[in-house]
Structures are given as C-alpha cells and as structure tokens.
Write a structure and sequence with these properties.
Distance between the termini: 61 Å
CATH class: Mainly Alpha
CATH superfamily: Cytochrome c oxidase, subunit III, four-helix bundle
Strand order of the largest sheet: 1-2
CATH topology: Four Helix Bundle (Hemerythrin (Met), subunit A)
C-alpha cells in the first residue's frame, strides 16, 4: 500500500488532519475551470434574484403592464413586426454559442488558426448583440420616453425592471466580448503554445459565454414573451 493510501485510511481526528494537510486533490478539475464554475454559480443567484423580483413586481402592480409585443415592435414598410429585433438578437447569441463550441473543439485539437477565427467570430456576434441592445435602449428612451423611474405606457416598474435586467446582462456580454478577444489574440500569437500547448483557457472562456447565452434565454422567455 502506498504512503498516500495509508495516510488517507487513518482514522480519528489525526486522520482528518492528515487528509487536509497532505495537499491531495479530491476532484480532478483545474483551478481555472473550478473558479469559473464558482463565479457562474454566484452569477446564477444574482440573475435569479433579478428575474424573481421582476415577476413579483409584475404580478403585484396595480397599473397596467405594457405589452412587450407592442413595445418592442419595429415597423417595416409601415407595418409593425412584434419582437423582430429581439428575435434577431436571440438568433445571434444562439449562433455565437455554436461558434464558441467549435472554437473549444478546435482548441483541444491544437488548431491555432481555426480556434482564433472561431473565437473572433463569436466576439463579433457578441458585439453585434450589444450594438442592437444599444439601439433598443435608444428607441425606448428617446422615442417612447421610458425611464428607470417612469414609464408613459403604464406601470413605472417596467422601466426599472427592463434597464436593470437587460443592462446587467448586456454588461456581461460586453465583458465577454473583451475576454474572448484577449484569449483569441493570445491564441493567435502562440502564447498558450509557449506555456505547454495548453488551450484549456478556451474552454473556460466557453463556459462563461454559454452561461451568458443561457441567461438570455430566460430573459427572453420571462420578459419579452410573458
């Protein structure tokens, strides 16, 4: 029996102390990936609180709640199309999730060129999403008169809920775009090849990006479709 096994099998308080002081790894998960999972778990609680608060406010308010299909409609040829911009934004994020998954796959294959271009495409799609969100905010603020503290179309809580939830998510997407571009540039310059040819950071960045995409699905369902 090895020394590590005999140490692990010791009983009593001394055995517990030896287990914790032997620097043994219980789960074979790299620190970077483990820390990202912990961060995403904490972020899940925050977004959950936002969405639960939004649903509570919407169900308890006595003022009429604006219809999202009318508020977020865009006119083409004189005819308003409900949620067309939101549908395009959702399609862009889902597509970016696919390109990110392919980037992770190419990273583990050590294909530097394809990994870089797929990550760059993902960042470009994310930037397009943020740009459309800026247009959406501008339309609501400048044309509809919606503010975080007021709403001429009905319940005042609509503005505060909308800007808080979509703004917090948009901040995550913007940070993700910067994060992806930094990692992609390091892939392009061979930074990870010089550090043992380890492309694990690409998967860690992918975890963050998939989380951002998943959160948008819930925002889309609860805020725009409900």
């Amino acid at each position: 029996m090895s020394e590590a096994s005999s140490t692990a099998l010791q009983s009593g308080v001394k055995g517990v102390v030896n287990d914790f002081s032997s620097d043994m790894q219980s789960f074979h998960v790299p620190w970077g990936k483990a820390m990202m999972w912990i961060f995403l778990l904490s972020d899940t609680f925050i977004f959950s609180c936002f969405l639960v608060s939004y649903m509570t406010v919407r169900m308890s308010t006595t003022d009429p709640w604006p219809y999202p299909s009318e508020v977020f409609a865009l006119s083409f040829g004189g005819e308003p199309i409900p949620l067309i911009l939101i549908a395009i934004m959702t399609f862009i994020l889902i597509t970016s999730s696919g390109t990110m998954a392919m980037a992770v796959n190419m990273g583990y294959r050590k294909d530097k060129k394809k990994t870089f271009w797929l990550m760059a495409a993902t960042a470009l799609l994310g930037a397009s999403f943020v740009g459309m969100q800026v247009f959406e905010w501008s339309k609501l603020i400048l044309e509809e008169g919606v503010r975080p503290w007021g709403n001429p179309m009905g319940a005042a809580q609509f503005g505060s809920s909308f800007f808080m939830i979509t703004g917090f998510h948009g901040l995550h997407v913007s940070a993700g775009v910067i994060y992806l571009m930094v990692v992609a540039n390091r892939v392009r310059t061979g930074f990870y090849e010089r550090r043992g040819n380890n492309y694990e950071i690409v998967e860690i960045a992918g975890l963050y990006w998939h989380f951002v995409d998943l959160v948008w699905v819930f925002i889309f369902a609860f805020f725009y479709l409900w």
